[in-house]
Structures are given as C-alpha cells and as structure tokens.
C-alpha cells in the first residue's frame, strides 16, 4: 500500500517513519525546503523524498495521504487528490490507529499548551507512563513507532482535528474558544468552532469531555448538539455536583463522590486563566486516579511554559515578560489582565483578523506605551492612537527592547504579547520569544 506524506516537518517525518515500520511504501513530498535533520532521518530509514515541489505522478497514485496541518485544503495538489478520491488524513488520525491506549487530547484557542504540559506533569508525577505529543514536542506518530502501547497526552490544533476520522480520546479537554485562524475557515467563526468540537465526535459514554462552562461559545454549541461523552464542566463563577469550581480561594474538583480541594495560592502559575488551566489538568488527574497529595504538590512545583507569560528578568526594577506565544487577541487579553503595574506593551506581527477594540478597557487601564513590532502596524495605530500617548513603530526586536527600556520606569512591566502571528519578521513565535529574551539579557 502506497502512503504519501505531504510536508516534511516534525509530524510528517514521524508519520513516514511509522508508515515504514508498518511496511507501507512511503514517499515524502514538501513544497518548501526540508531541514537537514529531517533529510537525514528519512535517508536513514531509506524513505524516498522530494523538496521544493510536488510531483503529481508520484503523489496522485497514493492509496493514502497524510497531510501536514499547515497545508490548507485549497492547495492545488490537495484538490487534485480529493478529485481522485484519495483518502487524506492528519498525522493524529494515522498514529492513533497504531496506538493501543486511548489518548488524552486537549484543544482550545488559548491555554492548550500550558494545560497539556501541566496534565502530562501531573500524570507523570503520579507514576503513570505517559507520552507528550501533538502540537508540542516530538511527533505523535514518531513516538508511536517506538512505543505504541503508551498513553499519550496530546495538544491538538483545529488543523490537526480537521484531518481525523476515527480518532477517539478517552478524555478530551476544550480550554476555551475565541476567533483564531479564521482565514482557514472561510472567515466563518462557526466553522472554526465546529472544528474544535471534532475532538469529541467519536467519544462514547465511557469517555469524558472537560470544558470551560464560562465560555459562551462552548455552552452555546453544547446546548445545540448531542454528544455521547460524559460532560465535566469547570468554572470560576458556577458550582457543580460533578465538575470543577472555585470556592473560598480553593479549586474544588467534584467527581463521583470524590472531592479534591487545592488552594489557589498553592498553584505555581499566576493569573485567572491559569486557575482554569489548573482546573482542567486536575480534573484529568482525578479521572486518572492520581493521589490528591501528588496533585497538590505537582501544581505547586510546575514551572510553566516557555514563551507564555514567562518572567525573563528584572532590570532596574522593571520586569520583562515574554508572552510571544500570544498569537491572538484572547491570549493577549489574559496577559494584559494579569498585569498588576503600568505596562509598556510590545505588540504586532501578522494580523489574523484581530478586533483590537476587545482590548480597549485593559489598554486604557494598564498600558502606558505601545511599541509596534511588525511590517504592517496600521490597525494597531488606528485602534490606540487616541488612547495611548506614545506609540512607536519598529521592525527589530533589539530596537523594540531598547525603546521599551527607555519608556519604562521603576516598577513598570515590559510585556511582549504580540496578539499576532510571527511570520513577517521571525521564523516562529519561539524564535520571536528567544530574540526578546536575548535582547533583554543584552541590555
């Protein structure tokens, strides 16, 4: 059986290796350049590959195509494959068929990386043999090729969920939903929301869906759709007989007559959004029968995620904070909301259809100066020019940080929280965050 992998990044190469291990005839095609480390991995496995092109006669005779989540359906080769009736799936779907233990899967517009890493940490500290994969770390397929019997904690994007057919997590989590990636969903918010809920489409009554009951879009979708999974809500404002809530500065997890209480002050991560992330992760740990004491200790020792409200350094009593992973308005809302002091805000990049008015109350209250870091900053300028006295444009991280240092006074914060994708000036949000940290350390 011939399998073609489109896209030779982490997920694509992992899929190719897994396919080779199961005796598929494998061909890998990437329209861009393939990184040398991935070329070496493919060569070691004797897997044929091509770069900077898609050769139709080598692709369109496939029985199955595994598509990278970054490739949209409107690409010519995908359209032609669909016309020929070739089955097209994601790495997640392909790897799942060879993974014997039902995974734990986490999605959401924001918070999914922190929740995934915290969930993995709680389960590992609790003594379970769990892997970490999906939108984070090493490829799910690549890990399944080595260890197919492990349970995996997966961070999943809507793009990865678009390519599933039979994928069924035992526990699914939806952290929240806010407008993101609408360019991939015909600019229809409802299409993006439906994509997120694909996480639960194959679940049965033996499985669980954990979700934010404060999220209007999640509640609306659940009110109008039937699902088979057992629903477990979490909330900062409501109480549940089964679910997670906050009472007297404690997170309470109520589950089948079992109750876990954790003081909010004992959670290492700060901010309301991280209370929610902790609720979701703790609910998973409770379902997986992790000891209460282990859960409490692990919540207080977890160190957080790089590029997500990461405290980089304090210089001249100014705190520099790296939130490069905030690539949409909702993520930046959480960041600004958690600022206790006056803030110099570094913002901008590739706009994904942002409505900057949503941040207006927080900008008025917390932001003393804005540094635009992007090729096209006119929307940011237009939104805040009458609200913030100082708005400066720049196209280099070093320059942005130097200007921020001049603007900031003792006791202030300098916050990189771009609300945009990074690809105009940087390779990725990680590259953007690392450049910020390097520039701060060189002040």
From TrEMBL:
The gene is murD. ATP binds at residues 108-114. It holds the Pfam family MurD_N. GO terms for biological process: cell division; cell wall organization; peptidoglycan biosynthetic process; regulation of cell shape. It is an enzyme of class 6 (ligase). It is found in: Cytoplasm. Keywords: ATP-binding, Cell cycle, Cell division, Cell shape, Cell wall biogenesis/degradation, Cytoplasm, Ligase, Nucleotide-binding, Peptidoglycan synthesis. This is UDP-N-acetylmuramoylalanine--D-glutamate ligase. GO terms for molecular function: ATP binding; UDP-N-acetylmuramoylalanine-D-glutamate ligase activity. Cell wall formation. Catalyzes the addition of glutamate to the nucleotide precursor UDP-N-acetylmuramoyl-L-alanine (UMA). Its EC number is 6.3.2.9. It comes from Myroides guanonis. Residues 106-285 form the Mur ligase central domain. The keyword DNA-binding does not apply. It comes from the Bacteria. Pathway: Cell wall biogenesis; peptidoglycan biosynthesis. GO terms for cellular component: cytoplasm. It catalyses: UDP-N-acetyl-alpha-D-muramoyl-L-alanine + D-glutamate + ATP = UDP-N-acetyl-alpha-D-muramoyl-L-alanyl-D-glutamate + ADP + phosphate + H(+).
